[in-house]
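User: I'm curious whether this sequence folds into something compact or stays loose and floppy. Could you predict its structure so I can see for myself?
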Amino acid sequence: MTTTQNETTQNETAQNETTQNERGNSSGFAPVLTRAAEAETTRDPSSVMTLLADSGNTGGRLTAYRSTFAEGAAGAPAHLHTEASEMFYVIDGALQVLVGEEITVLRAGDFLLVPPHTPHAFAAAPGATADVLFVFTPGAGRFDYLRLLGRVMRGEADPQEIRDSSERFDNHYVDSPVWREALAARA
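Assistant: Here's the prediction. I'll summarize afterward.
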């Protein structure tokens, strides 16, 4: 008895669907649901970061967290990522952002995508708070970086640990005279 091409394709499709259903999907990781009330948070003196999904539970595809910045809070100094693209979505307030050599203000509803190798920095805009969703793709274990950052900002860890972790977390600090000037003007 011979099998037609169509029957073979139907059998392969059925086997694929069975395998996908057994795993829940075909992506290599389970769906990720983080309830607001159960999300881990980390803090520094001027912001709260709500950890949503890290590379370990997204098959390495992305890392997502939400940061709420106090009025005028410093966010991140000038830095770049060699592997990850970083996405910013402003939920509320205003975020001052450096991209390359240009500074702009993102407001509620604005979206920004910063590709790898592009220097960038951010802070709550002068006189404003900011509530921002950050997404990195691919993910890079950023939760451990955010936890470390919180400890350093609270004086519980040595700042050298941040510098020593640049390769691990794909977070490379760079000098930006433009950003330094913008921060000085805020003071």
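Summary: The CA atoms of residues 12 and 181 lie 61 Å apart. The radius of gyration is 21 Å.
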